[in-house]
Amino acid sequence: MAQLEVKNFQRPDETREFEHNGKADVVTLGGRQVARGTFEPGWRWSKDVRPIAGTERCETSHLGFCVSGRMRVTMSDGTEKELGAGDAVAIPPGHDAEVVGDEECVLIDFGEIAGYAKRG
């Protein structure tokens, strides 16, 4: 039987530090993980997460909501979209991303993030 669960990102179950420029706080609810990514100015997936993932592009499927800041996502076919505060986003595998501007970007991710930026 399913249980009511409430967790707070101020006390995450796990924190995944990027190589530089940010982190992902992760909580597990209903057997699924939800992340709050804090991407600092200068963050770029290919620089800050690729060394952890070991793949050419991000192969994680993201389903999220941007709380603050701006991010540009570039798909492997060259398609680009920019998202900002208040935007909901679905990002399929095969992309790079980077923070736009001097403000950190905070994104809540409900996607398939079990292995995202996870070391080991």
From TrEMBL:
| Organism of this sequence | Actinomadura viridis
User: Domain of life here?
Assistant: Bacteria
- Protein name in UniProt: Mannose-6-phosphate isomerase-like protein (Cupin superfamily)
Q: Name one GO molecular function term.
A: isomerase activity
**Protein's UniProt keywords contain Isomerase:** yes
Show the taxonomic lineage. Answer: Bacteria, Bacillati, Actinomycetota, Actinomycetes, Streptosporangiales
The cross-references to SUPFAM superfamilies, in alphabetical order and at most eight, read: RmlC-like cupins (SSF51182)
User: Which one Pfam family would you cite for this protein?
Assistant: Cupin_2
Q: Which residues form the Cupin type-2 domain?
A: 60-109
Q: Tell me which InterPro entries the record gives.
A: Cupin_2, RmlC-like_jellyroll, RmlC_Cupin_sf
Keywords, sorted A to Z: Isomerase
